[in-house]
Amino acid sequence: MTLGVDLSKTNELKFLIDTGAEISLVRSSSLKPEVEISCSEGINVKGISNTIMRTKGTTELRLFAGPYETTHTFHVMNDNFQWQYDGILGRDFWIDKGANINYCDRRITMDNVAVEFDPNVRDKDRQTKITLKARTENLVRLPTPSKGQGLISKKELIPGVYLAESLSTEINGTCVTSIINSLETDVTIEPPVVVLEDIDNDECEKTVIIFTTQLAEDNDRLAKLRNELRTDHLNSEERVSLIKICEEYNDVFHLPGDKLTFTTAAEHAIPTPAINPNRAINTRSYRIPEVHKEEVQRQTEQMLQDGIIAPSNSPWNSPILVVPKKADASGKKKWRIVVDFRKLNDVTIGDSFPIPVISEVLDALGNSRYFSTIDCASGFLQVPVKQEDQAKTAFSTPQGHYEYKRMPFGLKGAPSTFQRLMNSVLTGIQGIKCLVYLDDIVVFGESLQIHNNKLRDVLDRMREHNLKLQPDKCEFLRKEVSYLGHIITSEGVKPDERKVEVVKNFPTPTTTQKLKGFLGLAGYYRRFIPNFSKIAKPLTELLKKNTPYIWNEKTETAFNALKESLSTEPILQYPDFKRPFVLTTDASNEAIGAVLSQGPIGRDLPVAYASRTLIVAERNYPTIEKELLAIVWACKYFRPYLYGRKFTIVTDHRPLTWIFSVKDPSSRLLRWRLKLEEYDYQVVYKKGSKNTNADALSRIQVAEISPDDKEQRIEITQDEKQKIFQEMHEKPTGGHLGMNRTYDRIKLFTSWPGMKQELEDYIRRCEICQRNKITQNKTKMPLQITTTPDVVWEKCSLDIVGPLTLTLEGNKYLLTFQDELSKYTIAIPIQQQDAETVAKAFVEEIVLKFGIPQTILTDQGSNFLSELFANICKLLKIKKIKTTAYHPQSNGALERTHRVLVEYLRCFILEDQTNWDQWISYATFVFNTTPHTATGFTPHELLFGRKPNVPGILQKEPPEVLYTYDNYVKELQSRLQSSYDLAKNNLIAKKERSKEYHDKNVNVPLFTVGDKVLLHDEKVRRGRSLKLSPPWIGPYEVTEVEDVNVTLKLPRNRTLKVHANRLKPFFD
After folding, report:
1. Mean pLDDT of 981-1010
2. Lowest mean pLDDT among 21-25, 458-462, 634-638, 955-959
3. Mapped to the 3 state alphabet, what secondary structure does 589-600 carry?
């Protein structure tokens, strides 16, 4: 029925009349935003789909129906609780209003006012057949012979269409309930007759039951489960049967948003008899980086909410650290909290459990055609820790002290506990309907029906013991699976070809060094290869001195014969799980390798081989990290053999034997060491010369092959390659990415031999990239040591600083002058930097007061290159030289002095900076009366021949004159000459040290006449953003090379001399 509502968006709302609902509801999106909701009164509600949701709170609404007006309190639902109505008028509404509902006349009377049902509802009620949309839940009215209120039982009407279990009330021979269509197509059915069963009112829950219609693919648990399942490999019959079973047992699967529960079938104990019950192990916590503290708090709060941990006052403590996880789809970094239980594990008594006998496994499989592997969702966290042992798992964070209630990763004995749990849960059907080894559960069957029956039995056990499965990690109805080093297929059990793939695909040695590596691998097992010397002779002949390395038919035959011997019996062994395993690893600069074997070290026979190439980042690891990476990777690769068993790791890197004691929480070694905590092993050192089996595998530069890579590749023509490069690099969808990122992107779709080198050549010649990309390895020419003057005023520098803040005197620029030998500096405030002002200040403040310098060095500013300034220099017979454009290092000494002067001014000027010209004379005085680091003298002393007398408490009385003027002049000349010589030597030594330091990181491309180069653009063009402008312009042709200066040919027959540091080669 439709009623007017004062606070609704449309001024009226459409309600469902439901006398079976205990409360009245309204959808929040149907109300105006300003509606006040009392959030403290939220409750849990449950519909016929058994989905429990919480209301946002309550609100009071005013309702209108013709002359009738009333108010009522409604519970407000979130928008994700979807239905086709704006609200429900429940039993509380009708009782409160004293309503009389006449279903025959379709009329409701309240306070003598009659309100009609909506007419479109009547039309729906008169339908003789019901049409159910695909994958939807539908609210329907069905005929019933029962009277009053009762429970409708769940029932499958036709395959894939279900009558929901619900509570309903008979009204005029009908009742309202829900029908679910789980099929992919629409279905039309006859309305079934339902029976209302009597219910016990004492068993009614406080949770409110409501009835609603909602889209299954958005909210329904079954739709979420279907999305998690992998069914692409199944035919229609297999897919339908699997989905039916999974929907039947949907409560067994852990879906996103579900709270992880725990079982009561087993508990994990942590026996520590060596520790006095009144004592504890308390390891100092590691320092957590500030950037990780928020992540630690977030994950800790989540574990508290999930009941995995609890606050603790335990005296025990194990440190935590934050380790990186694989980034999510958006590229955002993800992190995992890891507890370092090493000290606890050291005092914990270990445990063991039986291993399945492989022969019994083979007998159990029979002629099975279907196999499913089942994976528990965070299996360890579904096992509770014994109450008395929970305190031993305590750890601390900046927010508090906590202990685990569930079994965390990294505890000694955890695999044993989990195996016992699986044995207990699946007792009676293990080996008959399924295989179990630790977290590997395999269900098998000769036919689809037999397999599905066994799968139901396994799922029944999971449900009975409250164990949850991870649907996206389960593989259902596969034709082959890997189990305990064997491949189980419909044709029987066969060895896992991956164990010997790395040996069978061993590349043909192309150098004597690579041949030595292969012979080292074969020689390690030579005692088990009959006639080894005879077979290997063609290969060993190539290692003789002065023998040319020629690979022919004989060497190829010997090479293949040895590979065959290494990958077949009697060398290659089947794993015997009653005997301990030996894992031998090694790492080189290119790859890592491992051999899994059994037997005494030195006489052990291989069970499986493994190798992979290191990625670029891994090749930069230190040796110890590469060696530990080999161990971590090999343990993960051979996990089905090693997990839950004690084994030996053999390495030729002795420092790895003390990896247990590493304490740096930021260390990659520690993070990897903690990854090995789930394994039970000991590390044994073996000299490198005796570690030839794993050493050879670590030098195979063959990356791990994914299933996609194994598919036959189609030959790609050169023209097609160029089109691919152009599409993936130059087009807007390519984006001119760098070489590595473009390469990684293309690899997602295709690859061919030599693709990386071809792509590198292509991108190096991309003109747009060359002009727009910032060059990391820029040109850096060797430092040029300039000539050092013999006397003061022989060579001086002139420059302009500004514009600065306009002072009260009208000054905006600073003309600076520095003598290169003495470093004496003069700074003159000027109002503008035009040629006339600069020339006037130069003559009046420098020439007329200190004399004419012999040589002046300036930059290429227009004021210094003007005709006026050139004429003054010519008149005064001053030699004028200039620096290269945009290369201030040519006048580096004066540029460094500018920094000193500016730092002085910052300390004394006003906040509005309008009096800097009043302090500049003080700044130059301080500079000139302080010993210079390059000369060892004060500039004042080198210029005037006497040490400066500074004002203040250090001011000295003038000395008495004890000699004539002639004697004074001679002594002054002598003192100045010796000072000049010493200052010059100090300057030269300083320049040489600077050159030595600078030249450590030079990058000198060989520019020659005729080369094309790009020029770094230093100009800022009006109306353009510097960040969006290409940093390089050109290309230009080199016409002359003179030391570090290069002359370029510009358009319109112009030339430009620049420093080579501003150039980079252009590739066309």
Report:
1. 70
2. 955-959
3. CCEEEEEEEECC
Task: Please state the pTM of the whole predicted model.
Answer: 0.43
CATH, range 1011-1065: 2.30.30.140
Strand order in the sheet with 161-163: 136-143, 174-181, 161-163, 155-158
> Whole-angstrom Cα distance, residue 133 to residue 254?
27
> Cβ–Cβ contacts within 10 Å for residue 325, how many?
10
> If you count them, how many residues does the chain have?
1068
From the list 168, 228, 748, the residue with the least C-alpha distance to 475 is 228
Q: What is the CATH number of domain 236-360+378-425?
A: 3.10.10.10
Q: Residue 434 carries which side chain, given as an amino acid letter?
A: C
Buried b (16+ CB within 10 A) or exposed e, 471-504: beebebbbeebebbbbbbbeeeeebbeebbbbbe
- Give me the CATH code for the 572-690 domain, please: 3.10.20.370
Cα(599)–Cα(586) distance, integer angstroms: 19
Q: What CATH class does 493-566 carry?
A: alpha beta
- In eight-state DSSP terms, residue 845 is I
The two structure tokens encoding residue 332:
């955002």
Contact present, 229 and 375 (Cβ < 8 Å): no
Greater model confidence, 983 or 96? 96
Res. 962 pLDDT band, cuts 50 70 90: low
**Cα separation values, 739 from 746, 756, 760, Å:** 11, 8, 6
Taking CA 769 as the corner, what is the angle to CA 764 and CA 770, rounded to the nearest 5 degrees? 70
Between 147 and 504, where is the model more confident?
147
pLDDT at 391: 92
| pLDDT tens string 644-654 | 778 898 888 77
The H or E element spanning position 92 is: helix 91-97
The helix (H) or strand (E) run that includes residue 448 is helix 448-464
Residue 784 has what pLDDT? 60
DSSP SS3 for 925: helix
Cβ–Cβ < 8 Å for 1015, 1032: yes
Q: Two tokens at 875? A: 């008149």
Q: Which CATH code is given to the segment(s) 3-116?
A: 2.40.70.10
Rg (CA), the chain: 43
- Would you kindly state where each structural domain of the chain is located, as residue ranges? 3-116, 130-189, 236-360+378-425, 493-566, 572-690, 718-772, 795-955, 1011-1065
Q: Using an 8 Å Cβ cutoff, are 835 and 862 in contact?
A: yes
Instruction: Write down the pLDDT at residue 473.
Output: 84
SS3 130: strand
The 8 Å CB, 24+ separation contacts for 184-189 are: 184/134, 184/135, 185/134, 186/131, 186/132, 186/133, 186/134, 187/131, 187/132, 187/134, 187/158, 187/160, 187/161, 188/129, 188/130, 188/131, 188/132, 189/129, 189/130, 189/132, 189/157, 189/158, 189/161
CA–chain centroid gap for 185, Å, is 41
Under a CB-based contact definition with an 8 Å cutoff, are residues 475 and 372 in contact?
yes
Paired tokens of 559: 């090479």
Q: What is the largest CA-CA distance in the chain?
A: 141
Q: What is the 3-state secondary structure (H, E, C) of 602-666?
A: CCCEEEEEEEEECCHHHHCCCHHHHHHHHHHHHHHHCHHHHCCCEEEEEECCHHHHHHHHCCCCC
Q: Provide the pLDDT for residue 392.
A: 92
- Quick one: angle between helices 739-747 and 755-764, nearest 10? 140
Mean pLDDT to the nearest integer, 36-50? 70
Sign of CA dihedral 826, 830, 835, 839: negative
Q: Of 450-454, 471-475, 670-674, 684-688, which has the strongest mean pLDDT? A: 450-454
CATH assignment, 795-955: 3.30.420.10
User: Over pLDDT 90: what percentage of the chain?
Assistant: 6
Residue (of 176, 151, 180, 175) closest to 163 by Cα position:
180
